[in-house]
Structure formats: C-alpha cells, structure tokens
C-alpha cells in the first residue's frame, strides 16, 4: 500500500515498510527527540515523518498567500474561551494516544470531501463542517444528534444534553485562513459541548504540508 507524503509531488511516493528510512537515518526529524510517530489509519499502521528532501517545496493548493476575505479570513489564535489552540507536536501526541487505544479522543478533519480526497492527516476522521452548521444546506438536526451520541459519546434525555463522558475533540481544516473547523467548534459550543474538551490545530493542512509531514488519502 502506498501513502502520499505531505508536500511531495504527486509522482513521488514512499512505501511504508522495511524500505522506509529508519528513524536512526532520518536527517530531518520532527524534533530533536522525535524522528517519527506511527499511528493507525483505517486499520493500517502509518508512519508520520517529515520529507527528507531539503529541496522539496509546498504543493500548489497551499502556496497561495492571498485568498478573498470573506470568506477566507485570518482566524484568531484564541477561537473561543476554554478552547485550546495547539501545534504539531501536541497534535502528534493526540494522534499517538488515540492509536495506542485511547478511545476518548477523536481527531476531526472538518473539510469538505473534495479537499479530504487530496490528502488528510493519518488517523483523522472526516466530519464536514456542513454537518454541524445550522445555516448550511447539509444540516439535519436528527443527524447532528446521531453524530453527538454515536461519534462523540454524548448523551441526551428529553432534550437535555449530558457531556460528562463526551470525547475530547481535536479539530483542523486547511489553515489559519480556513473557517471550516472554527464553524464546527462554534456550533458545538452553542450546543453546550464543554470548551475544555475541544482542541484546535489552527495551522491545519497548510502548516502540516509546510513541515513536510505525512498525509494519507481516505
């Protein structure tokens, strides 16, 4: 099985197996102490590491510096009170904990399927922002209830939500100019989801690609 690496051109693929560069041989590490992280994606082990070619450049989808605002406006660092903004190392920790069996964590790619098809972060679950946003065409209240109870482990009784055992959610989308994960987060907070159980990877796919980190196609 072949997996696409973050900002590598479409023609260059790396086989995740014994052919992959060993951790001891990696020259471009994630941090001085961290060479790679292995996670589960669709039942298969995927090794997240940075592209080793120092001449590699970012893909065109994330090379643009100027997108029309609105809707592509710069998002604040603090999205909402109680919601924690995180970077790559914190996200990798969540990914590893989830892959090691922590069922209380869910990593959510809030982008629409056309973007996800181009590649996503290993171990992420796609939940398009349109599913939770009341003003979107794809919004269905009964479906939202199913998402919260079946995927997020919340409970509801006579219209009253109980989030005591709800999962810790980690959201991301395309980057600091993308409003899709912020829309998901704000919608959940409006429903009463505890802000301290919500984390936001603000850098999103643009920052992930910019660091040459591994992506996979769903």
Order of helices and strands: EEEEEHEHEHEEEHEH
Average residue pLDDT: 89
Q: In DSSP terms, counting alpha (H) and pi (I) runs of 4 or more, how many helices?
A: 5
**How much is the radius of gyration in Å?**
18 Å
CATH class: Alpha Beta
Q: Give the percentage of residues in beta strands.
A: 15-25%
Could you say what the CATH architecture is? 3-Layer(aba) Sandwich
Straight-line distance between termini? 13 Å
Shape: globular
CATH-wise, what's the superfamily?
Rhodanese-like domain
Would you write up a description of this structure?
With 218 residues, the protein is an alpha/beta fold. The protein has one domain (2-210): Oxidized Rhodanese, domain 1, CATH 3.40.250.10. The chain contains 5 helices and 11 strands. The protein has a 5-stranded parallel sheet, with helices on both faces. A two-stranded antiparallel ribbon has the order 1-2. Strand 10 (168-172), helix 4 and strand 11 (198-201) form a beta-alpha-beta unit. It starts with a strand and ends in an 8-residue tail after the last helix.
């Amino acid at each position: 099985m072949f997996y696409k690496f973050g900002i590598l051109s479409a023609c260059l693929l790396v086989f995740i197996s014994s052919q992959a560069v060993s951790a001891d041989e990696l020259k471009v590490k994630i941090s001085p102490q961290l060479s790679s992280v292995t996670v589960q994606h669709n039942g298969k082990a995927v090794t997240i590491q940075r592209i080793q070619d120092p001449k590699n450049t970012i893909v065109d989808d994330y090379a643009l510096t100027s997108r029309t605002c609105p809707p592509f406006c710069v998002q604040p660092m603090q999205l909402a009170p109680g919601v924690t903004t995180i970077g790559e190392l914190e996200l990798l920790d969540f990914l590893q904990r989830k892959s090691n069996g922590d069922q209380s964590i869910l990593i959510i790619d809030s982008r629409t399927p056309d973007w996800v098809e181009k590649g996503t972060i290993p171990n992420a679950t796609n939940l398009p922002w349109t599913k939770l946003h009341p003003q979107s065409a794809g919004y269905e209240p009964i479906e939202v209830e199913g998402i919260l109870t079946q995927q997020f482990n919340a409970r509801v009784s006579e219209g009253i939500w109980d989030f005591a055992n709800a999962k810790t959610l980690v959201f991301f989308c395309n980057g600091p100019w993308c409003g899709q994960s912020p829309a998901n987060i704000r919608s959940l907070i409006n429903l009463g989801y505890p802000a301290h159980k919500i984390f936001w990877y603000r850098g999103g796919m643009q920052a992930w690609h910019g660091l040459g980190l591994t992506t996979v196609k769903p």
